[in-house]
Structure formats: C-alpha cells, structure tokens
Amino acid sequence: MRLLLGIQQLMASHTLISSSSLRITNSMPIKCVPSSFTPTKAFSFLSLSLSTTTTTIPTKSFQVRSVAAPTESVAGFDDMVSGTQRKYYMLGGKGGVGKTSCAASLAVKFANNGHPTLVVSTDPAHSLSDSFAQDLTGGQLVPVEGPDYPLFALEINPEKAREEFRNATKKNGGTGVKDFMDGMGLGMIVEQLGELKLGELLDTPPPGLDEAIAISKVMQFLESQEYSMFTRIVFDTAPTGHTLRLLSLPDFLDASIGKILKLRQKIASATSAIKSVFGQEETQQAAADKLEKLRERMIKVRELFRDTDATEFVIVTIPTVMAVSESSRLSASLKKENVPVKRLIVNQILPPSASDCKFCAMKRKDQMRALDMIQNDPELASLTMIQAPLVDVEIRGVPALKFLGDIIWK
C-alpha cells in the first residue's frame, strides 16, 4: 500500500498531458486511459510488476506524466478511418525513429474505432512483440488483448521464410537449383554455369526476400475467407534500405520469371516430342505452373504497393538533419516506384519548455532547424507533417499505445 501511495504522489507532482488535446497543463490532472481500466493494467503501462496479496484494489484512474510538445498538427485520421473497404498502411523510415510504436499505435487506434485490424512486422529484427508486451513470434496470427474490436498481430519468422525459399528449389533431397531447373528443361544451362556456383547463389535468398515472402503470406491470409474480416492492414516495415529493396523486388522477380518462362518455352518447343516419350513434359509443365503462380503473386504485391485507393506509405522520421535527409531520399524513391505517400511523422520533438535547460535548448534548436529543412525540402514539403512529441514513458502495451495513438493520429 505504501508503494501504491508513493507512486500516486510521485505522479501527482509532475506535469501531465492530455492525450486528446496535446496541451500541457500544470494543474489539472488528465486521464490518459478510460476509467474502466483497472490499476493492474495501468501499472503494467509503467512496466512496474507489483505483487500483492491484498483483496482491496484502488479504483483511481491511471494518469500519465509526459514532456510531450504541444502541437496542433492534424494527421487526418478521420479520412484514414472512414469507409469499410480494406485499406493498407505501410510505415517505414530510418532505423530507430519509432516506426514500430507508430505502427502499433495506429493499429490500436483503428481497432478502437471499429475496424478489425491486422498489424504485420516485415522487419527481420522484430520489435512488435516488445511494443505490445505480448509474444507474437511463431509466424502465426496472434490476437492482441485490449482493443474494442479484433486486433491481430503477426511477426514473420525470417528463418522460416528462408527455409521455405530453399525448399522451393529442392525436391527429393536433390541439389536445389539443379533439380528445379531440370524440371524446367534448363538443366544443361546450370551445368554449363557450374563454375559460377549458380546453385549456391540461388539457394541463398536475395536481400529483401524475407519481406517479399511476408507480403506474399499476408496475401494468402487475405485471400482466405477466414481472414476476410480485416478492414485495416498495418505494415511495420524494415529500415529504409530493406524497404526500398522490398518495393523494387516484385518488378525484378516479375521480369526474371518472365525471362525464364520465355526461355523454357523456346526449349520446350524444340524438345517436346522427345520429352513426351519419356514422360518429362508433365513434370516441366508443373514447374512452369508454379513459377507462373509466383509471378502472379508478385504482380499482386506490386499492384498493392501502387494502389492509391487502398494503400498509403507513411514515412516516420525524427528531427535531425541526417534523418530528414534520408527521409527525403525515401520519399523520392517512393514516388519513383509510384507508391502513394501523403504523411510524414516527425517523432520525438522536444517541448518549448525544454529551453530551460542548456543541453535541451541546444537540442531543440537543432530540431527546429530540421523542421525548417522539411518545410523547404521539395520531396517532403508537400506531405502532411505530423509532429509527435517526445514522451518520458516507455510506450509498451496496449494502454500505452492507445495513449500515443491519441496524440499522433488526430
């Protein structure tokens, strides 16, 4: 009980922020989670593990202190949440800028506004489990506890995806690419290029394949009637370099598979009579059909990325010169790939009150310089800028994500 009173006194002595208005107040305590939340959930928000045997539980609403900067920026969430047709939101940017927290908070916000939502991490270094304070590993859909409407999360297992890629080129314990190309009637090419170690090259997945397989798996989920309930899909993507490879990979695979199929057709037309005698034609056609299905799936992924009515890429950055410069290049690359991008989240902004501290004042001055860069950058100036404040509580668990979501997604 003394510990509980101590926590309440400590919290009462700090400045509080309203999660709905973003205005800092020094006197009026602001509730950041609904009163229906029990203190057990509230204390888990502060990452405090309390063990008690008492049966009396206090009912006082949980309060959060924060040094969040006041801002009037509007994300246009009403437009994002409107409509029942399925929409996809991909959040990406430089590593360490808070992409996962922003993506998870958006998913919680969608779910709390009536949308059955799926949030997927395509980053091989997953943080989604940590963000939700829940085990989401295993490569399966996991229900998230807390939101008003169904919210499911999925962390793609990168090693499992790589293993599936290797298995796709192997049969009967064979040599991988050699057997696969034999089935296509192209085995002689592999033999001639043996010194180049083509098999080792193709047995090793190319960069970005983890994310491509992740997107492809999500397409499988979406094509199944079992998962047709989702009306909002949020992707937490890998850092910029991986994401750019992901965006270009469908085009690369489409072109590569197309060339293989054309080459196979030319060879097949010259050797079809012989192969039909030895019963190899059906095997080769089955391999070609698999490639064609893969190609069709990659085309669907490419169309998904570029569908202006269903998809939007949200860039997440922080107010530093380096991060803004990288975000500008990312925006240019997205436009080059015809990927719709409308919003830019600038995360971790210090409040004006930080000027009372010399170190903080210098830091805020640098941040203001970075914000000016955004306003004058030809790639970023046209985007809707959302200023997300720096908060001094760890954003972990659904109550914390709701708090952050109410700040960012207005």
From TrEMBL:
Could you provide one GO biological process annotation from this protein's UniProt record? tail-anchored membrane protein insertion into ER membrane
Family designation: Belongs to the arsA ATPase family.
**Gene3D superfamilies according to UniProt:** P-loop containing nucleotide triphosphate hydrolases
Q: Which NCBIfam families match?
A: GET3_arsA_TRC40
Q: Which InterPro entries match?
A: ArsA/GET3_ATPase-like, ATPase_ArsA/GET3, P-loop_NTPase
Which residues are in the ArsA/GET3 Anion-transporting ATPase-like domain? 87-408
Q: What is this protein called?
A: ATPase GET3B
Nucleotide-binding keyword on record = yes
Alphabetical list of CDD domains matching this protein: ArsA
Its keywords, alphabetically, are: ATP-binding, Hydrolase, Nucleotide-binding, Transit peptide
Residues spanning the signal sequence: none
GO CC terms in record: GET complex
Lineage top rank: taxon: Eukaryota
Ribonucleoprotein as a keyword of this entry, yes or no, is no
- One of the Pfam families matching this protein, by short name: ArsA_ATPase
Gene Ontology MF terms in the entry: ATP binding; ATP hydrolysis activity
Q: Which gene encodes it?
A: LOC107467971
Enzymatic reactions: ATP + H2O = ADP + phosphate + H(+)
